[in-house]
Amino acid sequence: MDSHRRRFLCLLSVLIPSLWNGLPRTSFPDLDEKSTFSYITSGSKYSKKVALTFDDGWYMYNDATESILDTFKKYELKSTFFVVGCEMKKSKELWQRAIDEGHILMNHTQTHRCLDTLSKFGMKYELFGWEDSYDSLERGNPLRILRFPANAGANNLWVYEQLCDLGFYYGAGWSIDSNDWKRAADTSSNVQYVKDNILPYLDNGKIVLQHCLPSSASALEDIILHCLEHNLEIVKLTELPGTPVYIPKKRYFVIR
Ligand SMILES: [Zn+2]
Prior knowledge:
Elements lengths: L2 H20 L15 E3 L8 E8 L5 H13 L5 E4 L1 H6 L1 H9 L3 E4 L12 H16 L9 E2 L10 H9 L4 E3 L3 E2 L10 H11 L8 E5 L2 H16 L3 E2 L22
Parallel strand pairs: 1-6, 2-3, 2-8, 2-9, 3-4, 5-6, 7-8
Helix pairs in contact: 2-8, 7-8
């Protein structure tokens, strides 16, 4: 092999992995260009990154949410919260803290209604109502990425069509379900239950679904330690390569 060819192949072997890791596989298209709905359930299996996501944020469990934020702060990690809009309004200080500490808040509707039971008008109220609630905080940049309450309508093409008409093109699903809502209280067996539903399945590109609940709050530190031990980096959903909502560092898209 001549030296030019060897140099070229060597360059490729450096460039290809860095392109894979460093660039989005698909970036946010302009809203005008996007016409179909994307439902995300995992990131790239080639990147050693996982996204822990937390739903709901009910007022009655604010202590659990505080504890989750404390744990992330201790390890200097950021997460993604799909907060119900009316709960966000009730606990502005708490959710402002989440934003100030670098977490992302995303749409989980205003009152946690199942989207497949609503008219288009009802969906509009739920989705834009959430954005109004978000606007009452000192904002970061809201991204139109939606998690379906109770996952209802997540496979419904009619619902997708209405969402696209309303300017929502991205749904956030998950690849690991903690089922923490079935055992919310902070008991050692519940905490073990949450960990058992997550830890054996944690791997490259996984999106984990948890809720802001006492059992999940108490399981969090062990989940973080497990990730550290297995060299898995915990990132926000928008930093998970291989998803259509991946935003590479130093570039920022606002889709609203
Ligand atoms: Zn929910």
